[in-house]
């Protein structure tokens, strides 16, 4: 899932700081995020009605003209899914935050770790509607099916009549699941962020940090093979998506 995140603050330095933290969060967690900056509540409202597709809003309360609380009230009239995170220098509006179902309330200067934890919570809430991959598993005792969000799948590897699916959890721990299906069958159930980089591998471009001559390097430094014929195509795909 690609998260569309808005930062609304009338202080340019604050917007730039929050924007950097959000991009760090996306990189660290292997998520994809589009970040938009707004210098006022009015500027946000000018763009918002067109699509109403922002997932997360980092919202300053104390702004000129329309304040953050008034903006949040207007949003909640038509949108109950957006994750609103209040960020301000005055810790006096927590009760009002409950009124508009704010996810959290962070006081400036914002601590990076606290913001990243709140963004994790916001993303987890949004993932409830994210497309998932069904992974049927079999062992000697019982059969079961896992439902895994596509954004948590790092890569898929073909291994004879099976595929190995590498899944990274919220804490960064990687688990590999083996299921009886083909790579081609699995590829049909994935989203555009997945790229068939080798006859035996599909990689999630969300996790690729750089490309080498014959490999895609993931953000944990693991290398996934890239065939010679796919080198230019994978580079073009990364540029297009990010």
Write a structural description.
- With 242 residues, this protein is of the alpha/beta class.
- It folds into two domains: 127 residues, Rossmann fold (3-Layer(aba) Sandwich), CATH 3.40.50.2300; 110 residues, LytTr DNA-binding domain (OB fold (Dihydrolipoamide Acetyltransferase, E2P), Beta Barrel).
- The chain is built from seven helices and 15 strands.
- The strands form four sheets. A five-stranded parallel sheet has the order 2-1-3-4-5. The chain has a five-stranded antiparallel sheet with strand order 10-9-8-12-11.
- Strand 14 and strand 15 form a beta hairpin.
- The longest helix is centred in the N-terminal third of the chain and has 18 residues.
- The two termini are 13 Å apart.
Give the gist of this structure.
This protein has 242 residues and is an alpha/beta fold.
Key phrases:
5-stranded parallel sheet; Rossmann fold; 5-stranded antiparallel sheet; OB fold (Dihydrolipoamide Acetyltransferase, E2P); 2 domains; 34% strand; alpha/beta; single chain; 242 residues
Helix content bin: 25-40%
Q: Which architecture of the largest domain per CATH? A: 3-Layer(aba) Sandwich
Strand order of the largest sheet: 2-1-3-4-5
Instruction: Give the total of domains.
Output: 2
Q: Which residue ranges are poorly predicted, with pLDDT under 50 across at least 5 consecutive positions?
A: none
Please name the fourth-level CATH homologous superfamily of the largest domain.
Response regulator
Order of helices and strands: EHEHEHEHEHEEEEEHEEEEEH
CATH topology of the largest domain: Rossmann fold
User: Helix/strand/pairing class, anyone?
Assistant: alpha/beta
Number of helices: 7
Largest sheet: 5 strands, parallel
DSSP strand tally: 15
Shape verdict: elongated
Task: Indicate the proportion of strand residues.
Answer: 25-35%
Radius of gyration from the CA trace? 20 Å
Mean pLDDT: 88
* CATH class descriptor name of the largest domain: Alpha Beta
How far apart, in Å, are the first and last alpha carbons? 13 Å
């Amino acid at each position: 899932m690609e998260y569309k995140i808005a930062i609304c603050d009338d202080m340019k330095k604050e917007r730039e700081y929050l924007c950097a933290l959000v991009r760090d969060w996306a990189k660290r967690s292997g998520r994809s995020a589009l970040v938009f900056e707004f210098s006022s509540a009015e500027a946000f409202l000018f763009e918002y009605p067109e699509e109403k597709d922002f997932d997360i809003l980092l919202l300053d309360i104390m702004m000129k003209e329309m304040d953050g609380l008034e903006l949040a009230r207007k949003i909640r009239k038509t949108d109950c899914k957006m994750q609103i995170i209040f960020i301000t220098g005055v810790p006096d509006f927590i009760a009002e935050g409950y009124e508009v179902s704010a996810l959290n309330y962070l006081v400036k200067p914002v601590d990076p770790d606290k913001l990243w934890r709140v963004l994790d919570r916001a993303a987890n809430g949004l993932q409830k509607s994210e497309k998932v991959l069904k992974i049927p598993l079999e062992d000697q005792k019982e059969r079961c099916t896992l439902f895994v969000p596509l954004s948590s799948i790092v890569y898929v590897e073909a291994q004879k009549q099976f595929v190995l699916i590498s899944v990274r959890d919220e804490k960064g721990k990687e688990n590999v699941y083996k299921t009886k299906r083909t790579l081609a069958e699995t590829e049909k159930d994935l989203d555009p962020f997945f790229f068939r980089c080798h006859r035996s591998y599909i990689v999630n471009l969300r996790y690729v940090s750089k490309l080498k001559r014959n490999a895609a390097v993931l953000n944990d430094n693991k290398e996934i093979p890239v065939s010679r014929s796919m080198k230019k195509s994978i580079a073009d795909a990364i540029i297009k998506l990010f």
